[in-house]
Amino acid sequence: MPKTRKEKEKIVENLKDDLTKSYGLICLNFSQIPNNDLVVLRKEIKDLQGSARVVKKRLFQIAWQDSKKEESFVLPKEKKGNLLSLFIFQEDSLLPILKLVNSFRKKFKEEVEVIAGWLENRIYSEKEIVSLAEIPSKEVLLTRLVYSLKSPLNNLVYSLKGEIFKLIFVLEKIKQGR
């Protein structure tokens, strides 16, 4: 049954509230995803201090314009399917939610598509959102940094050790020759 104008206005108001409170937003276009998987995604996003809502694209567009955001956020009309809006309410939950979205996108290759995102008062394209989601964790980056700083020192130590072993080997041969 179609929603009444009053119900749609309430949806737009709730979206505007979420837009003003949120630190970031990711919009996904999806079709033919089992409801159980959407419920699991919503629960995991809620655990990460976020919110997931399925809304009509037109209602989202109205809420975006009414929230007086400076950036223009235009959803492509030619894309078929539903819009899943993921609101991020805390800065520290940004990367975990992005990683969760990326794994969800990989799981449902054909059915899920990242449309765009709004993070830190800037609009990001699909490619930028995906590349942000594929950034390794802080621990992995720190490990790589330590390894890259330690590697030249290790190479120096092994090369100096090699020269000493060569000298000892030559001295041993000379000693055996006498």
Shape: elongated
Query: What is the CATH topology classification name of the largest domain?
Result: Alpha-Beta Plaits
Largest sheet: 5 strands, antiparallel
Note poorly predicted spans: none
Count every helix, treating DSSP H or I runs of 4 or more residues as helices. 6
CATH top-level class of the largest domain: Alpha Beta
Structural class: alpha+beta
**Could you tell me the strand content as a percent range?**
15-25%
Q: Please give the CATH architecture of the largest domain.
A: 2-Layer Sandwich
**What Rg do the Cα atoms give?**
27 Å
What is the domain tally?
2
Distance between the termini: 104 Å
The mean pLDDT is 85
Per DSSP E runs of 2 or more residues, the count of β-strands stands at: 5
The residue fraction in helices comes out at 55-70%
Strand order of the largest sheet: 2-3-1-4-5
Query: From N to C, what is the helix and strand string?
Result: HEHEHEHEEHH
